[in-house]
Amino acid sequence: MRFIFKTKYSQDINIAKHNGDRFWYSLLILIMAALPLVLDDFYLGEISYICILSIAGIGLMILSGYTGLASLGHAAFLGVGAYTHAFLLTNGIPFYASIPIVIVVSFLVGAAIGIPILRLTGMYLAIATLALGFIAEHVFIKWEHFTGGNRGLPVPQPEFLGMSFYDSVFFYYVCLVFLIAAMFAAINILRSPTGRAFVAIRDSEIAAQSLGVNLGLYKALSFAISGAFTGLAGALLAHYIGYLAPDIFNIFLSLTLLLLIVVGGMGSLHGTVFGAIFVGFLPQLIAICRDYLPSSIGSQPGLEPMLFGIILVFFILYEPLGIYGRWIKIKLFFELFPTYKRQTFKKQKVFTKSDRV
Amino acid sequence: MSLFEVKNITVAFGGVKALNDVSFGVDKGEIFTIIGPNGAGKSTLFNVISRIYEPSKGEIYFENQNISKTKPHNISKLGIARTFQNLELFENATVLQNLLLGRHIYKKTNILSEVFFTPSARKQEHEYRLKVEEVIDFLDLQHYRDTLINGLPYGVRKNVELARALCTDPKLLLLDEPSSGLTNEETIDLGFWIKDIQSLLGITIIMIEHDMSFVNKVSDRILALNYGKILASGLPEEIKNNADVKQAYMGE
Fold first, then answer.
1. CB–CB of B104 and A196 under 8 A?
2. Which of A59, A70, A152, A168 has the greatest CB tally within 10 Å of its CB?
3. What is the mean pLDDT of each run of 10 residues along chain B (252 residues)?
4. Of A3, A13, A192, A343, which to mutate for an interface test with B (greatest number of B Cβ within 10 Å)?
């Protein structure tokens, strides 16, 4: 077991809490950077996709996992990011200028949608965001000047730093760098007063308000920040897909993002990566399994959504803290071995919570 | 002139008048206790003061400023902090994070400086922490800094909520049943702390409380409510011997 001897306040503020953190995360980044040496284009593409999903997951995690606001229409922001990026690139704006514009546009769209929609809470908010997803999909179809409608919109693959986005190794590095940057940005937000205010809103709105947190402002800010991250992911997704069509940004993509954060672990940034690996590889796994199943089951359409649904229910019932929660338990098991008690994580009866103020 | 004044406050929920024409004033540096049987309107009064409920009639003045129209999230900026009857802590955060939220009203950073965690954001965190540590020392919470609220016993949670309110550096502290659910020893400790908050930190306290021996020990003045109306107000001895109060609590 590790005991951290604290002598400075900075130790609580710093991202890395001890040298072990520094060592393992640096090693992880080194391994990620070295992957193109051993993996072929197919797997690099898959991992790039997982990076993109993780960035989108960070966006939804900040909104749902940290601020406690549900969103069933987050594919809309992926769409906003993707279309804005493709539109800008088509009009000759270079990649390095387009990305910041995409982030700002998604942020503003998030704020504009967030301000009215966040007067709702709970179930009603979920329904409203569901509707948002459908409306966005419709807008992508109808606003032909901007999106190309149902004909679709080819995404230009410009040169950036003298490299082409067709090069899967280069694209992999771009995604990786953006993921790391997004991670740092998210960690920084969450260790600042704004991030704490989000958590406060999640756990007790009334106490947050009495401590001076402007609920309306911070909920809208959370939606906007969430939109900005997801929009960035959308821009990268545009490169990954290469050709945008409105039906990519459908309800199923929104639900995939939801599955991602629930399976990964609500309220943890680690969870976004775990969840992204899970939902990124799941379709491949299902495809492989199809070959081994009897053809009457294996060739059924709709196997994927069904499995997604079952997995979601399974996690909510048996591991509400997701893969990250399980990881924490395993880690503690080895730290305390052989004195670990199953009871450690037994859910305590909540005896203080009530609706009265 | 009083530090805090409530003038003719009436709160009606449909036909029920939870508070009926209640007026009182609290002087600076005082410990002012509100007592009354269940449903007397005590918590309603607190919720009106922290602007969660809208009064049907009447005004509230704090430092001669009318706060009946102030936004709920601006109340703490004026220097009014509160605790809740049924703890409202941030359950999935550590004690330290809960207390740091008490400093939220002093936030100077904007979202951009936070995304890049600029030196000014870091400096602000240090300043927050200094104040939080003062409060931790004051209420003996050193042991619990990094514990999640989820895992804390009830008495400590109550203490954390008081600490969180103190972190806002208030001029007026509203305590909603601070001793409920505490053991005898904890109640005695609380009595000392409340006296210390008054004398060392110079904070005025309005408190709702049921434990009469505790009330008599710490309060400077008492207000008794029943069915939304003021029964009596005055020094602890006066209230103890007041016929109306006796009747409200014990019947004929």
1. yes
2. A59
3. 87 87 91 89 89 89 90 91 90 91 90 88 91 92 89 90 93 92 90 92 92 90 89 87 82 68
4. A192
Nearest CA to A110 among A231, A267, A200, A205?
A231
Q: Which residues of B184-203 are buried (b: 16+ CB within 10 A; e: fewer)?
A: eebbebbbebbeebbeeeeb
User: How far apart, in Å, do the first and last CA atoms of chain B sit?
Assistant: 38
More confident call, A345 vs A337: A337
Question: Is B101 at the interface with chain A, CB within 8 A?
Answer: yes
A164 and B CB contact within 8 Å: no
The domains of chain B are located at: 1-79+170-252, 89-169
A89 to chain B, minimum CA–CA distance in Å?
Answer: 26
Is the Cβ–Cβ distance between A137 and A250 less than 8 Å?
Answer: yes
Residue A191 — very low, low, confident or very high, per pLDDT cuts 50/70/90?
very high
A-B C-beta contacts closer than 8 Å? 128
Q: Cβ-count burial of A295 within 10 angstroms (0-12 exposed, 13-18 middle, 19+ buried)?
A: exposed
Q: Are B179 and B211 in contact (CB under 8 A)?
A: yes
Q: Do A206 and B88 touch (CB under 8 A)?
A: yes
Q: Which residues of B touch A354 (CB under 8 A)?
A: 86
What's the one-letter identity of residue A13? Answer: I
In our burial notation (b when 16+ CB lie closer than 10 A, e otherwise), range A253-280 reads: bbbbbbbbbbbbbbbbbbbbbbbbbbbb
Alpha helices in chain A (DSSP H): 10-13, 19-38, 41-60, 75-90, 95-117, 122-142, 144-147, 168-190, 193-203, 205-210, 215-241, 251-264, 269-292, 295-298, 303-318, 322-336
ipTM of predicted complex: 0.91
Q: What are phi and psi of B224, to 5 degrees?
A: -105, 130
Task: Kindly list the residues from chain A whose CB atom is less than 8 angstroms away from the CB atom of residue B150.
Answer: 348
- Measure B212 CA to nearest chain A CA, in Å: 23
Q: Between vectors from CA A286 to CA A283 and to CA A183, what angle results, nearest 5°?
A: 35
Give the integer Cα–Cα distance in Å for A312 and A279. Answer: 11
Residue B105 touches chain A, beta carbons under 8 Å: yes
CA distance B179 to A352: 15
Q: B159 — phi, psi (to 5°)?
A: -65, -40
Task: Judge: A192–B117 Cβ closer than 8 Å, yes or no.
Answer: yes
Verify whether the Cβ–Cβ distance A212 to B87 is below 8 Å.
Answer: no
CA nearest neighbour of A55 among A163, A161, A184:
A184
The neighbouring-strand residues paired with B94 are: B148
Record: fold of B1-79+170-252: Rossmann fold (3.40.50)
Residue A100 near chain B (CB below 8 Å): no
Measured between beta carbons, the chain A residues lying within 8 angstroms of B97 are 196, 199
Distance CA B210, CA B226 (A): 13
Beta strands at B4-13 and B16-26: parallel, antiparallel or unpaired: antiparallel
Q: CA B145, CA B139: separation in Å to the nearest integer?
A: 12
Nearest Cα neighbor of A241 from A115, A152, A128, A132 is A152
